[in-house]
Amino acid sequence: xxxxxxxxxxxxxxxxxxxxxxxxxxxxxxxxxxxxxxxxxxxxxxxxxxxxxxxxxxxxxxxxxxxxxxxxxxxxxxxxxxxxxxxxxxxxxxxxxxxxxxxxxxxxxxxxxxxxxxxxxxxxxxxxxxxxxxxxxxxxxxxxxxxxxxxxxxxxxxxxxxxxxxxxxxxxxxxxxxxxxxxxxxxxxxxxxxxxxxxxxxxxxxxxxxxxxxxxxxxxxxxxxxxxxxxxxxxxxxxxxxxxxxxxxxxxxxxxxxxxxxxxxxxxxxxxxxxxxxxxxxxxxxxxxxxxxxxxxxxxxxxxxxxxxxxxxxxxxxxxxxxxxxxxxxxxxxxxxxxxxxxxxxxxxxxxxxxxxxxxxxxxxxxxxxxxxxxxxxxxxxxxxxxxxxxxxxxxxxxxxxxxxxxxxxxxxxxxxxxxxxxxxxxxxxxxxxxxxxxxxxxxxxxxxxxxxxxxxxxxxxxxxxxxxxxxxxxxxxxxxxxxxxxxxxxxxxxxxxxxxxxxxxxxxxxxxxxxxxxxxxxxxxxxx
Length: 529
What we know:
By secondary structure, this protein is of the alpha/beta class. Helices cover 39% and strands 13% of the residues.
């Protein structure tokens, strides 16, 4: 069975002419001379490198759709008819106390100084993409009022049109970074935090020094990579002048906007956009430890690391280095990727898939425990969208996994809320929304709840934040139901015994017992004793 049909996908705006397609190549079984389009090979014949990327930059997010042999759907959640663990101290378990709304969904992370979150989820890095910039108020306010951490991704200062550098080429002023941090902090209630992420260019520009000095941030995040790609971050640029500006700031810009032939092609209209790429990092233990020490000297009390779907070697490096450096949170992002700009073939065809990578992570954590090394708090990422998947991940990785990082799934509610506001203002609500009402109060089921809390200030909260919060409440209640069903009333009590493998292959990969073997000894004892 082919796990992915290549050469045609909505993300790249391509399709096969024929209904019959060769599985391996994705080429129509009967390719016709004179075909008017439009598979990826056909489109690549005259648009070249453009076809590597999802279409509609700034307007869409894209998620790889490769169907891996094993994923979290191969686990199922155990349910029990007796017991209750994790209830508040002094509370006796019973039908009147073990109620699912009483389940505590809070989590925390940090080596010494913990950060609490109301939910065990937080946003993926929202960095220099256009969709992150345009929707930032909605994402930031939504994460803050929901009590979860928000990650401000790489290159925000580097692409800021208002960026001012000092005589040493370091950030002197970045209005865009200021806006991002101030928006989140304006709504933050003591749960969650904003993490600013740094890559090679950010380090060279002095982003850490800037956000520490001006905004007094407690935490900074180093970045090795992500599940979407194993090269640096990228965006698209529409004008020649902007492309040249970013090249002067030290970025890789393709095609090279300074070349006469490229300028000519842009003038002709053949080249319609440029790509801005970040550099590859080169990780060494000595370099990592020195950078952590430098950041602490700057003033950061917490340091986190984000890494991607690299080989088992890099995974082991991340865990060992983070343990020795006392890193506060290690986020491990598996394949396939989801993003607004990463190359489509890379999103689909590189890296260790999430279920496999997270299983390896647990194995390595156990090895570290045997060696009496402290395991850093861990978050995992890579394809999660709902509370059942988060429960499974936290259970499989217990007690090491503290939270799940979610990308597109937390962007969508904010964009939906924002769009509903625009549709109301323009008096063109689609029927999919108007069936629930025509006013904000009628449409948003959590509106009155927020109004009670914030009063008149509710009107100032971006509607995208209401979308984010409303999704978060659905997530919370769904998670409470799943946890109560497994008789866990606190996330700290969830264990690997609360999930089972539905296939032998999943059991072999994860070490989670096969469904026909889970609790079998205990069951037989009841029958035979």
